[in-house]
Amino acid sequence: MSRRSTPDLPEPQSFDRVLSSMCTLPHPAARAAAERFLATNPGDPGTYPAVSSLERRTVSMLGAIVGVNEPHGYVGTGGTEANIQAVRAARNLVATDRPNVVLPDSAHFSFEKAADVLDVDVRTVPTDSDMRAIPDAMAAESNEDTVLVVGVAGSTEYGAVDPIPALAEVARAADALFHVDAAFGGFVLPFTDFDWNFDHAPIDSMTVDPHKMGQAAIPAGGFVVSDRSILESLTVETPYLERDPQVTLTGTRSGAGVASAYAAIDAQWPEGYRRNYERGMELATWLAAEFRALGFESADPELPIVTADVPDRQFERLREGGWRISRTGRGELRIVCMPHVRREMLEEFIDDLA
Ligand SMILES: *Cc1c(COP(=O)(O)O)cnc(C)c1O
After folding, report:
1. What pTM value is reported for the model?
2. Which residue, by CA, sits nearest to atom 10 of ligand 1?
3. Cα dihedral sign for 127, 131, 136, 141?
4. With a 6 A CB cut-off, is 85 part of the ligand 1 pocket?
5. Nearest Cα to 250, choosing from 230, 220, 211?
């Protein structure tokens, strides 16, 4: 049978000028695996056992990446779902009538959604001049109603890595759970000297997104916990499915996401990801120097994310020129050196800016 094309289906996207997205071209193995598992639902393991066992293997591989020997968890829709689940588990496990979550102001906006749907207070704590959480300030905001303390390992805007071991202490002192959001950082931090994972601190749960630096197909997010009881606190009975209660937030899930996460990690961990990291850092460091050479303030990047003080007028001109770029909350131009970003793209971009 020949493949039938749909004439009015538009081209989805060229990545030629995409500079601010945390998504990227999936690895070829991830693309093939996604297509093969399109019609599977890991949310119903009794009926779809192959994808279900693939998911268990994927969680094991995620565990190896984030430093936990016996990981529990699942592959969900992304960082937002994993962060919601972390807040939900903490709310279910810590007894209080007025639960609150303490997080740095660099935390992702998904925690606001979590707080809203779960009816939990959010206590946002200012970060230091390097955009990192300040443990003493986080401790000062925690109290007996704190159910979760959050640290960010690779912030969305700046790639900043919080002092994770010190924040674990803050959580412990408050009798709260400790969650690390490494949605972006999880696939680059293994190649740095940062203390960020389960091996470096007593962490209860972590977000790590295969569909960002992991080069899996969307949707593939990871929620990983060190103790089964955390997952069990999320259990809901599932009468009409063949078997097994669910701990996930969504019901039907993407088998394509699971299979592509498995294939991407299997193909690339660790050396392929190391190359992506090194390439991304080289580009980011070069780019920050180019910004400065043109007179725009730009700090040396710690992860492959560059920000620069570029005035509105130039920013808008670049967007009109087709560059897909965004700004931080403070207004800086922000560029993420994902695997699809090449030196020639950045040279062209810098030429346009100049
Ligand atoms: C991207 C990101 C998220 C949200 O992940 P989605 O997959 O977009 O839901 C959460 N936290 C951090 C640190 C992120 O960078």
Report:
1. 0.97
2. 79
3. positive
4. no
5. 220
Question: Tokens 């997952």 map to which residue?
Answer: 231
| Residue pLDDT tens, the chain, 354 long | 456 678 899 988 899 999 999 999 999 999 999 999 999 999 999 999 999 999 999 999 999 999 999 999 999 999 999 999 999 999 999 999 999 999 999 999 999 999 999 999 999 999 999 999 999 999 999 999 999 999 999 999 999 999 999 999 999 999 999 999 999 999 999 999 999 999 999 999 999 999 999 999 999 999 999 999 999 999 988 777 766 789 999 999 999 999 999 999 999 999 999 999 999 999 999 999 999 999 999 999 999 999 999 999 999 999 999 999 999 999 999 999 999 999 999 999 999 999
Span from the CA of 276 to the centroid of ligand 1 (angstroms): 19
Rama region for 157: left / alpha / beta (φ>0; ψ in -120 to 50; rest)? alpha
Distance 176 CA to ligand 1 centre (A): 23
Nearest CA to ligand 1 atom 4: 79
